[in-house]
Amino acid sequence: MNIKPAKYWNIKKTPQKVEWRSLGINDDRKVFSCCDFDNKIFGNISVNIKDYWDGFGRWVIELKNSLDKLMGYEIVLMEKDSHNFMGNMIEVLDDYRRKGYGFGEILRLFSVMLMNENKSKRFEIYSRGSAVYFHSKYKFVPYITRYSERDDTLNMIAKDKSAAFRDLAVRAKELIEMEKKNNIDFIRRMFNETNKLVQEYIELAAQEPKPEKTHPFNFGLPMVLTDKNLYKNKKFYNELYTKYGLDYSI
Fold first, then answer.
1. How many degrees, rounded to 5, is the angle at CA 159 between CA 156 and CA 161?
2. Which phi and psi (to 5°) does residue 226 adopt?
3. Longest dimension (CA), the chain
4. What is the pLDDT of residue 129?
5. Strand locations in the chain (E)
6. The pLDDT of residue 188 is above 80
7. N- to C-terminal Cα distance for the chain?
8. What are the residues whose beta carbons fall under 8 Å from the beta carbon of 79, sequence distance 6 or more?
């Protein structure tokens, strides 16, 4: 994937180093210190992390302008002992949601930093249907484990009548028929087969200009970024950090 220049950002000649601190003597989780960016339209923009207000131990990554007005955020949870990492919601507010601004991308880059610095094995999310292609762009893959999610997704692919998707539709129908035959050994493998098929579907659809319009997901989808997939794609991520003038690498 070609990384496009940061069109709306003034990038400093000297990359900005990301500083990290541990939460305490009995808590080895790490969080980043506030980082500032210069946006050509909105001026100074900061990215910070703090405890989320609900008291359940979650964090919120906030993107704010120079007037301290919230522009976007991501709510995440990292378990204290295991460092299991989950994303609960990522959102750019309507006034700042425009292709090319990069606000959603910056939020994603900082949450992936958290994953990497804390050596989390997995970063699990539940994507809204409209955001599946966004998360896929950052190497998240389907992680379907429920029968209802499996059946909904297979039926969706089976009904896709686009010529380029004919083979995938046939494979989806075959999986549906195999499940009906109650082949126990196959049913155990079916989730893996389904996740592989859905990933192929997403990758093929993503080649189109607006896949969320031509091949929409009308339901949510569990997705995951594993440490293995992160390291496999570290060149992609490192180029994105460089794009925004960050001295950071996977």
1. 130
2. -90, 160
3. 63
4. 95
5. 9-10, 16-17, 20-24, 27-32, 35-39, 43-51, 59-65, 70-78, 85-92, 122-127, 141-142, 221-226, 246-247
6. no
7. 17
8. 85
Rounded CA gap, 26 and 42, in Å? 40
Q: Which residues of 186-205 are buried (b: 16+ CB within 10 A; e: fewer)?
A: eeeebbebbbebbebbbebb
Cβ-based neighbours of 161, under 8 Å, separated by 6 or more? 169
pLDDT category of residue 1 using cuts at 50, 70 and 90: low
| Spans of all domains in the chain | 9-128+220-247
pTM: 0.94
- Angle ∠(199,200,206) on CA atoms, nearest 5: 90
pLDDT over threshold 90, residue 185: no
How far is C-alpha 165 from the chain's CA centre?
24
- Sign of the alpha-carbon torsion through 130, 132, 137, 138: positive
- CATH architecture group of domain 9-128+220-247: 3-Layer(aba) Sandwich (3.40)
Assign 3-class secondary structure to 107-127.
Answer: HHHHHHHHHHHCCCCEEEEEE
Q: Which of 54, 49, 46, 88 is nearest to 71 (CA)?
A: 46
Residue 245: enclosing H or E segment and its boundaries?
none
Q: Give the SS3 label for residue 169.
A: helix
2-19: average pLDDT: 88
Residue 2: what pLDDT? 66
